[in-house]
Amino acid sequence: MKVFRLSCHRFQKLSQACEERAISPREEQFLGRHRESCAPCRQSEEGVAMALNMLREIKLEPEVSPQFDQRVLRRLRVQNSREGFSYWSPALVGAAIAAVTLLGALQLIAHSPSTPEFSGSQRASAKAELNDLPLLLLKDQERSP
Amino acid sequence: MYNVSTVSSAYSEMHLIPAIDPAVQELHWVRRCRAGDENALTMLIDRHRTRLVRTAANILRDRHEAEDIAQEAFLKAFREIHKLRDDRAFSGYLYRICVRLCMDRLRLKRPELTDLDSLQPHNDEPVETRVVVENLLWKLPDELRTTLVLRELEQLSYDEVAVVMQVPVGTVRSRLHTARERFRKLWMEATGE
């Protein structure tokens, strides 16, 4: 287990600061001395350097396809036309046609002959037929075993 | 809308500028782009596409997806170019959009880590190393991973990373420290060193 000292903290801060600014000779000396005296910091620094080297090795340098510019320009034109009326007009015409058709259909339904109406006797006979039905089924069930 | 009719007249003008400072040149293109000049747009795409695709590829680890994201970044940048307060900041603005789109994609995408045992025996060791490192990268949280990639692979300065990721430089510093330390630990665990 590493004992974290104040100088270790300073070492870490300074070793990161090297990337952003030029460090003074005094700071450089401190880094050197700490590296020699503190094995965990030295190992950690070496480990980071090694892992980052591996990371840099997998850097991708992809070739951009020759149609890239054309694709962007085409998409941009589509995008611009979408914002304009010309893009939406076919959809609006389609919606209008659908609305007219729907209205026509509703009119036809409204004026078609209404659903058949039954007289009182017809209703009574239908009811009787329905009442008979479960009875017949029960009889069938009794016979079946 | 981009006016194609202005292209031919602007094209000759564009090629007179390269002797000037690239930043001034870019400023000129951004202004023309705002005015709807498609040629200026092509110039901006030409300048930034390689780096943008590479950045996206290194964050997403997928070349095809990277092209798609780069295209989306250009579209979004051109569509919202009126939101850009300082024309000189176009480059940072474009990369910011690209990185944000990559982060969004990363949230949706969590590939199954490649099992080393499933790999065919290979004489070429770097292939295995590549798989190990890529798997380790996926184990880092998105913010740490992106910060690490921007700094270590794209070689952006701390300030540039801060601009692109829209965080203070102090946050970049601490994220980078954490990312490196975690990556080192993961690497040590994976290689048994």
Structure description:
The complex is a heterodimer of chains A (145) and B (193). With 145 residues, chain A is mostly helical. Chain A is built from six helices and no strands. In chain A, helix 1 crosses helix 2 (25-37). The longest helix of chain A is centred in the C-terminal third of the chain and has 27 residues, at 85-111. With 193 residues, chain B is mainly α. Chain B is built from nine helices and no strands. Chain B has helices at residues 7-14, 22-34, 38-60, 63-79, 90-108, 125-139, 142-153, 158-165, 169-191. In chain B, helix 3 packs across helix 5, helix 6 crosses helix 9 (169-191) and helix 7 (142-153) packs across helix 9 (169-191). The longest helix of chain B has 23 residues, at 38-60. Chain B is elongated. The N and C termini of chain B lie far apart (58 Å). Mean pLDDT of chain B is 83; it is low at 1-12 and 118-123. The chains are: A mainly alpha (145), B mainly alpha (193). The interface between A and B is large, with 32 and 46 residues.
